């Protein structure tokens, strides 16, 4: 599980791009019947909403489509990429 590092104002301060050095933060987490979701920054779904989506739509295409639908609501949106996997426990 990796979470972005934010400063005290909530601004992302650990990221990588064309001018930043790459620094991967990681840890090992045991998984059993858990869902791992990795998205680009264009997906506008917080952790609460993500849990609610999986609870109501279950794991699969309908859940991913709901994340895309919510992220396309603003008049302008960034790239929308999602990778999700479910651990079998």
Q: Tell me the overall shape.
A: globular
Give the % helix. 10-25%
Compressed to H and E, one letter per element, the order equals: EHHE
β-sheet strand percentage: 5-15%
Total beta-strand segments: 2
Number of helices: 2
Distance between the termini: 17 Å
Strand order of the largest sheet: 1-2
What keyword list fits this structure?
2 strands; 89 residues; alpha+beta
Secondary-structure blueprint of this entry?
Blueprint lengths: L34 E5 L7 H11 L3 H11 L10 E5 L3
Antiparallel strand pairs: 1-2
Helix pairs in contact: 1-2
Description:
There is one protein chain. This protein has 89 residues and is α+β, with helices and mostly antiparallel strands. The protein has a domain of 52 residues. Helices cover 25% and strands 11% of the residues. The longest helix has 11 residues. The radius of gyration is 15 Å and the shape is globular.
Q: Can you describe this structure in just a few lines?
A:
The chain contains two helices and two strands; from the N terminus they run E-H-H-E.
């Amino acid at each position: 599980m990796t979470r972005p590092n934010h400063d005290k104002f909530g601004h992302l301060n650990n990221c990588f791009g064309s001018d930043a050095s790459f620094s991967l933060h990681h840890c090992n987490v045991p998984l059993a019947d858990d869902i791992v979701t990795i998205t680009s920054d264009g997906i506008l779904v917080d952790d609460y909403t993500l849990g609610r989506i999986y609870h109501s739509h279950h794991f699969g295409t309908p859940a991913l489509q709901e994340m895309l639908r919510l992220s396309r609501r603003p008049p302008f949106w960034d790239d929308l990429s999602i990778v999700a996997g479910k651990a079998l426990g």
